[in-house]
Each structure stands twice: as C-alpha cells, then as structure tokens.
Amino acid sequence: MERFLKLVRKDIEIIERDSVQPNAIIVCIPQEVMDACTPENQDHARIQSEGSDLRNRIKLIGMEARIPTQLIKPSTLAIRTDRQRASRAWNLTVGLLYKSQRGHPWKTRQIEDGHCYAGLSFYRERDEGDDVIRAALAHVFHGRDHIILQSDPLPDITEDENGSPHLSYEAARQVGEQILEYYEAQKGTRPSRFVLHKPSIFWDEEREGLLDATEGVRDLDLVWVRRRPKVRLFPPTDYPAMRGTLLSVPDDDVHYLYTSGYVSEETTYQGSGVPSPIEIRPDEICETPSLEICKEILFFTKLDWNTSDYAIRMPATVSVAKRVGTILSEVDTESISEVRPQYFYYM
After folding, report:
1. What is the Cα–Cα distance from 119 to 202, expressed in whole angstroms?
2. Which end of the chain is more exposed for a tag (fewer CB within 10 A), N or C?
3. Rounded distance, CA 163 to CA 185, Å?
4. What InterPro entries does the database record attribute to this sequence (predicted)?
C-alpha cells in the first residue's frame, strides 16, 4: 500500500506543479492493487494496512495539494443493474460537481439567517504511540456547505462506562468559542441561535463551558442524538414505518425518529434491512420546542451530498463529523501544512 501511495503522491505533485490545475483528480485503483493491498480473508470494501486506510491517505494527499480527489475502484464500474448504473452516475456527477466548483452543489431555504448548526465528533490522533483526543466539527452555517473545523488537542477528556468521550469545562468552552469565532469571521456577527448535536449525553461541565462560550447568543440548543435506541415500531402494513414517523415520550422528553423507512414519494422502502429510529434527547439547555428540533434533524439527514440515497440515517452535522474524524486520525495528518476546512476534500 505504501508503494502505491508513493506513486499517487508523485503523480499528484506533478499535476499540482502544472500551470493549469484541474478542478479535481480522479484516482483509479487497479484490481492488482486491490488484491495486493487487501488482507487475507477480507473483502475490498476498505483497504487497510497496519491501521492505515488507503482511501483516507489519498484524501490527505489531495488536501495537501489543494486539489480534491475522486476515487474509483473496479467495483464502481462493475455495473449489473439499471439501479446501480443510476446511483453510481448520480454519485460521480454530484461528487465531481461539488468538488470542481469547490462546494455549493445546491442550497436550501430551510436554514434561517442567524442560525448556526454544528455537530461534534471525537477521534484519536496517533502520535508516536500516545493517543491524543481531538474533536472534529461538521459545521453548517448557511445551508450551502459543510465546514470542517479541527480542534486543538482537548484537555482533560473523560470517557464514560460506554467509552464515549466527554469534554471538560475548558475543552467545551474552547470548542464553542472556536465554532462561534469562525461563524463571526464569515458572517460578520455572532449568531442569534446556536444548535449543537452530540452523539453522547451532555455532562454538567460541558454545559457550563458551552454556556460561557456562547455568551451573547440569544438561543442555545444542546441536543443528544443516539444511533441505536432499543425501540422499534411495527405498522400494520407490508412496509416498515414511514420516514418521518416520530414516537415521543413527553414525560422524559425523549423522541424516536425514523429518518429512514417507507418514502411515500417513492412508494417504496429502498433499504435492505428493517429500519430502526434514532433517539433524540433535547438537553435541559434547549430553548427550541422538541418537535422543531426533531424536524430540523430530519432535514439534516438530507444534507449529505456524498450519497445518492434519499436520506442518511444520522443528521449530516454528526455523520460528516464522524467521517472526517476517520481521515484526520491517519498517521500522516501531522505532515499536512494546513488541514483544510472544506468538506469536498474529505468526500
């Protein structure tokens, strides 16, 4: 894998020095490389060696050259059905459009001016054997693009009994300030509303740090979004629950939302297994009514431009942050002079 990456890096450096740079670089991976780099008894879904991922490494090489990359594996071109042809054509077209024009494939009217949305995800940075926990932030502030902010190393990270990281007061304040500083630099003013999605419950120290960081923001909404609740709904039909179905438990302010399921516009359910809802718990610091919070999360499941699916399961604020974290945790992240904030370098 390292030999192949060396060749890719050399070719991209040659392209980078050209007087006319391309808008994107398509990297076709030969079947011989797929076979040679895939560990025995594993499929070709992910090519990894000693904890390093081939796709992630190529993304980092492109980022260093400031040219987005598009990977194509032999399986991408092994088309057997019209549905595969349609979905792959869509993915390639939208992906290359997004990368070639540096973002903004389309915009939405559903994000109000002055509202700042962010998703928090953690990853471990490998640093000569010592793990350093950072936070990757998928930051959406105007409905036209995902902006990725890499935090500084976070002090005093604590893990709960489930292994989920939690921020100290100082780390939470640092993360909140970083998001709002970027927003203010782009928009010229602080937001009137700040929404933070997090895949684990908020601890007291996290609340206090975020409260201090967001001083002057009128509305603060902290929301816990969990992927695997122990709840299923079984409607009396041949199809699973409809996408958008919501089961609320008002006494506990907990909500189970089907972000995948039967889609009436398509008159079918496109998934391969029985869908399950995600769990949404507005924190005690949440100014917006819970129903509106759930509607926004449902909307954000349609805001990942890296898929041809009707929607994704988790909101893009959280899922994009998690995906970016896997790339930023690669072994050669430190060799990059500057980590780029634009999502098109990562997708």
Report:
1. 13
2. N
3. 35
4. RNaseH-like_sf, RNaseH_sf
Which homologous superfamily does the CATH classification assign to the domain defined by 115-343?
Answer: Ribonuclease H-like superfamily/Ribonuclease H (3.30.420.10)
CA distances from 285 to 177, 203, 212, 246 (A): 17, 11, 13, 22
Mean pLDDT for all residues in the chain: 84
Nearest alpha-carbon partner for 197 in 277, 103, 288: 288
238 φ/ψ angles, rounded to the nearest 5 degrees: -80, -10
3-state secondary structure at position 93: helix
Domain boundaries, the chain: 1-78, 115-343
Q: What is the pTM assigned to this prediction?
A: 0.85
Six-digit token string for 158: 């604590």
Per-residue model confidence as pLDDT tens digits over 177-191: 989 998 888 888 899
Q: Are 223 and 280 in contact (CB under 8 A)?
A: yes
Query: Tens of pLDDT along 136-161?
Result: 676 666 556 677 777 666 667 777 77
Q: Which of 52, 29, 28 is nearest to 39 (CA)?
A: 52
CA 187 to CA 179: how far, in whole Å?
Answer: 12
Helix (H) or strand (E) holding 248: strand 246-249
Three-state DSSP state, 106: coil
User: Are residues 55 and 94 in contact, defined by beta-carbon separation less than 8 angstroms?
Assistant: no
> Residue 78 corresponds to which tokens in the numbers above?
């092994």
